Structure formats: C-alpha cells, structure tokens
Amino acid sequence: MKSLVTLISLFFAFAPLWAQSGEWRFAVSGDARNCGDVVMPAIAQGVTADGARFYWHLGDFRALVEFDEDMVGRAGAGKLTVRSYLNTAWDDFIDSQLKPFGNLPVFLAIGNHELESARNRGDYVTQFGDWLVTPLLEKQRLADDPKDHKTKPYYHWIQGQIDFITLDNASHDQFSSAQVGWFEGLLKRAAANPEIKTVVVGMHAALPDSLSAGHSMNEWAEGIESGRRVYQDLLAFKSNTHKNVYLLASHSHFLMENIFNTYYILSHGGVLPGWIVGTAGAVRYRLPRESARAKIAKTDVYGYLLANVHPHATIDFSFRDVTQKDVPQTALQRFQAATVEQCFTGNKSDYQP
What is the pLDDT of residue 18? Predict the structure, then answer.
C-alpha cells in the first residue's frame, strides 16, 4: 500500500497539469509523400514529447506516380530506377516514417496515392496488415459483428468515450454503399451508447462542399452523393444526441480549420467542426481563394494537429509546427544536405484547389 501511495504522489508531482486534470491527447496529420522521410521523424519526436496516446495518419504515404524526393536524395543510396522505387516505396515508409514512433500506436487511413501504379486495396491490406489487424481493432470489429472476419481499409475503435472512425475515400467508387451502411450502423450504436460522448471521423479527402472543394470528394459524382449523405448523417447525429462531432482530413497539402464554413453548407443544415491537415511532408499547395472564410489557414508548413481531449470528451485542436531544426540527427545523417534544405525551403507547388 505504501508503494502505491508513493507512485500516486510521484504522478501528481511530475505529471503535466493537463494529465492531472484527466485530459489526454492524440495527434493527426496526413500526406507524407515527397519529403516524409525527412519530416515524419520530426513529427514522431514531437508527438511523443507531447504525450499523445496515438498518431493518426490520414493517407498518401509515398507518391508512387513519381520518385519521392527524399528517397532520391538519400546519401549514398545510388540511383533509383522505376522498378527499385516501386519495390521499396512502402517498405521505406514503414522503416523511415512509422518506426520512429516506436511503441506509440499508429492508425492508418488509405489515400488515393496508395492506389497508384496499379496497386489495389488488397495490396494495401497485405502490406499494412500489422496496422489494420491490431488486437484493439480486431476486438472492436468482432464486437460489432462476430461474423466479420474481413480486414478492410475502413474501421473504427472506441477510446476514452470517443468513437474514432477511419473512412476510405481513396478512389472514385467511394463511399461505397457497403461502407455507408457500415458507417450509419456505427452512428446508430454510438447514439444509443451512453458511454460514447463524441465521434471523430478521419479520412483522406475532405467531405464535399468544404473550403477546399476543388480538391476533395467534390471531384467525382459518387463522392458528392455519398459524401453529402455522410455529412447529413453526422449533422442529424449531433442534433439528435447532442454529442460532439469532429471531422479530420488531409489530401490538400496545407492546414485549414473550420473548413465547412461555406455558403452551401450554411444553407444545407449547418457547419460541423472540420480540419484539413495535409502537412506531413507532401509538396505544399497554395491556399484556396475561399480560405479567408477559414478560422486558420496556413501553407508552406509541416506539422500535426494535437488534440486535447477534455474529461467530457470535448476536444480542442492546436497545430504543432515542425521545422528543419526539429529533424532528429539520426534522420539528417541519412540525406544529402541539399535534400533536407529543399524539403523545407522548397517542396512547393503553384497548384491552388
């Protein structure tokens, strides 16, 4: 008993105030292609230092349609060929970008670039099965349906009064009717479960009609129809249950908060809290013309959203920048100095959604 009292005393003496208050944290960002091997180790270091319980990656791990600049600029790596690049790109992502998180849980969402170069969802599930069939996710899947033994790119888990839902909109046949049916079943169970206070939905491309509509599910007909249905489902869920709803996406390579503050959304039910955080290493885009309507809009930055979860499962999000000086020495030693410099001072595009 004395040792237990001592441990409790040490916790309150050394734990940060946010942890003592019953709060906890998680982190999220997406789009790590191009310079992710340089940027993601810095993100992992920051996420760990911030005491996050997990990191959520919202897709686009490697480019696959062209060589990623970090792989080209690796010191002493030799010249890449198309074959050698495609054969090693996903293994490189695991070794260079996921391993720096150590034992911290990482959840993955599928992005459109995971389906480039003739790859399919079966390839994705095979390569990243260790992250899709964790004991936590498998237990949750079988608790929902004891007959569901199929691993899918979309999934969910419940943690700390929050239902975290990862959706798959990586191709133009999504959201499929099967995925929408699964999602709507989750919302019904979350509505009926008094222990769930909040739903957080993460995906690669933002739902339709956001401030970045030009680079979102608005790009394809099925995306518009099914994406609007999912948004309306979430509006109804929030209205009927008075529970919290938060939406997270990447795909557009910048940071933006309050992405659903658009005329269309305002005239079709109301604005849900939403963020785009495509800031994990991908070539940086220009901000959309409508970005003035966002609460926060930044480009030419790298980093992650840090989520502070309060005791009643409300969440505050803040952006944590990572800069060139944050890149760990172990990562810096792997690259030509010009590559690291270019990743931070360059790696920009004139593309404007």
Answer: 44
